[in-house]
Amino acid sequence: MLPWNKMFPFPKDYMKQDIFKQTDVENWMSKATQGKLPPNPQTLGSTDFFAQSFDLLRSAQAKKNKKKRNEFKAKVFETHEEVFVRFAVASEEQLSQIKTTHNTTTLFIDNFPSPGDKQTIPLPCIVKGASSRAKYQDGIVEIRLSKETAVPVTKVPIEIIKRKSKK
Question: What's the pTM?
């Protein structure tokens, strides 16, 4: 006799006759799943596959539309000497709310597109600290940042360690 027959959940006489009683199978299944499934299938939600699919699709589209409204898009490009960051502003009144700062690798825009929002734009290269300027024209803000061309080089001395000879 093969060992898998010992692990089979049905008695051996069922295997010989090839007859399964529906009530016995239901009893075994209810014992196996006892306490794991809710008694009422309606508590799991809709069982209609298409209804569930359309609900998921609607919720995903709603999230995407919400993101699009608050989405911030800035164009970043560079020349040999400067990095440019451009973004659209709805009105000149909004300009008074916007605050821009930067460090050598990142540009920060506060209170845009709405008060309290913060935007972080990674820059493609290292820029100088105090050489930035910005202008507003035709609904576009353009920030120019000069590239850091003189990268500091530090000399690293090499220490020579000699082994002591054994006598």
Answer: 0.51
